[in-house]
Amino acid sequence: MTKQTLAILKPDCVQKQLIGKVIDHLLNAGFRIVAMKMTHLSRESAGEFYAVHKERPFYPDLLDFITESEVVPMILEKENAVADLRETIGATDPAEAEEGTVRKLYAENKQNNIIHASDSEENAKIEIAFFFSQKEIIDNQ
Ligand code: ATP
Ligand code: MG
Hints:
Layout: E1 4-9, H1 11-15, H2 19-28, E2 32-36, H3 43-49, H4 59-66, E3 72-77, H5 81-89, H6 102-106, E4 115-117, H7 121-131
Antiparallel strand pairs: 1-3, 1-4, 2-3
Adenosine-5'-triphosphate is lined by residues 53, 58, 62, 92, 110-111, 113, 116-117, 119.
């Protein structure tokens, strides 16, 4: 079981100045940050990252949203990291998210939902490699 997953603090999180609160929530949930950066995705990069949703009706809006301002991708480490982070952030739609989850606390709607988390161990590896080189990951130098 891989111990790492990828989170991205989305543009709404950055714009609402919630980065600190969300990071605090993740640390309190037992995650360790082993890599982090701030970056502004180009439409091309965003399209590659969300290629799985290419045929969905919300895809153009999703690309507008995710490229609106900078984002904060980070690698989080913990036992059972992938499943535990999904649980910590809550359902895609904050109206359906459990009490106390990041999205329930801070997200506005199904699109503007504050944070991304890898949805499988396989995708966690792909998404980590999308944002970070080995040299950028703590303990890997
Ligand atoms: P993420 O991949 O960002 O962690 P998720 O896995 O909970 O979120 P996905 O189904 O992978 O949800 O959708 C990716 C993102 O696309 C969502 O987080 C949200 O920002 C947007 N999205 C998904 N469904 C809708 C929808 N019906 N309407 C608008 N935006 C949506
Ligand atoms: Mg997803």
